[in-house]
Design goal:
It contains eleven helices and no strands. It is mostly helical. The chain has three domains: 111 residues, Four Helix Bundle (Hemerythrin (Met), subunit A), CATH 1.20.120; 93 residues, Helix Hairpins; 47 residues, no CATH class. It is flat, with a radius of gyration of 31 Å. About 5% of the residues have low confidence.
């Protein structure tokens, strides 16, 4: 169960979005899940997926009753509405399942993008480029844009602020689309470059930290915590008395709020660091 849980969590956003779209189309009358064998099998598989996810979460939860109280949405999403005629006939049951699926999809997608910020930014940038290309193609087709490839080229050039000038909107709706794209596209591109830079710096800092814990020969260094000596006989000064510690606080506001004993401990540790550097 522990090994299955990460896989279910990874697949949950896509499965929840698919289930939401399927039930919404059924409620709108575009499809009939109960009369289409393929869609019915797909809905049954989705219910099985959600049931397995709910079961693994319940088994791994330390507080079973608390899990049942706080995961009612997940419980509603596994109700087999289309597999039983009595439930299928009640429209409110299908509506409730749609609401639970929407809530589940929204939560799982938000959790996924929160832990995958770079993926989220890339998706946003791709959506902006796609919407910009489609919009400019629809309003400028026959003027300066003759094909969707031209629309895509113009959108990328505009978002990246290159501005070759070979293509430009001529109509008023096209210029409105350009203004919107300039504002949203530049913001999305800035978020993308900033996120990529942040990821690179984070990985570089982690590599430097790992290398700093090794000695020049490449062997792991002593990673045990460094403790100051218990006695001042190794070159460290005597602890300050309470009166001098209080006077030291007046000259160092960062130590305000600490007790004299805590101040002495801080000062001893600072002196110990200086002692190690001298060595």
């Amino acid at each position: 169960m522990c090994r299955v849980r990460p896989v279910l969590t990874f697949l949950e956003p896509g499965v929840a979005a698919l289930a939401t779209a399927l039930v919404a189309l059924d409620l709108l009358g575009r499809v009939e899940i109960s009369r289409n064998l393929g869609l019915l099998v797909l809905d049954t598989a989705i219910i099985g997926f959600f049931a397995l996810d709910y079961l693994t979460g319940l088994i791994g939860a330390p507080d079973k009753k608390g899990y049942l109280r706080t995961h009612l949405v997940e419980l509603l999403s596994i109700v087999p509405v289309y597999q039983f005629r009595a439930l299928r006939a009640v429209r409110v049951v299908r509506v409730l399942r749609l609401v639970s699926l929407v809530a589940r999809a929204r939560r799982s997608i938000a959790q996924y993008f929160t832990s995958h910020v770079l993926t989220y930014v890339v998706v946003i940038l791709c959506v902006v480029i796609a919407l910009g290309s489609i919009s400019i193609y629809l309003v400028e087709r026959g003027n300066s844009i003759n094909s969707f490839a031209d629309a895509l080229w113009w959108t990328v050039v505009t978002v990246t602020t290159v501005g070759y000038g070979d293509l430009s909107p001529e109509s008023t709706p096209g210029r409105i689309v350009a203004i919107i794209l300039m504002i949203t596209g530049v913001g999305a591109l800035a978020a993308f470059t900033g996120t990529v830079a942040s990821v690179i710096l984070h990985r570089s800092g982690r590599n430097l930290e790992e290398h700093s814990q090794e000695d020049p020969e490449g062997n792991p260094g002593d990673r045990s915590p460094v403790h100051p000596p218990e006695t001042p006989s190794e070159g460290l000064p005597e602890p300050l008395p309470d009166r001098l510690a209080g006077e030291y606080v007046r000259d160092n506001p960062l130590l305000a709020g600490l007790s004299p004993r805590e101040i002495r401990e801080v000062l001893v540790f600072i002196d110990f660091i200086r002692y190690r550097r001298r060595r």
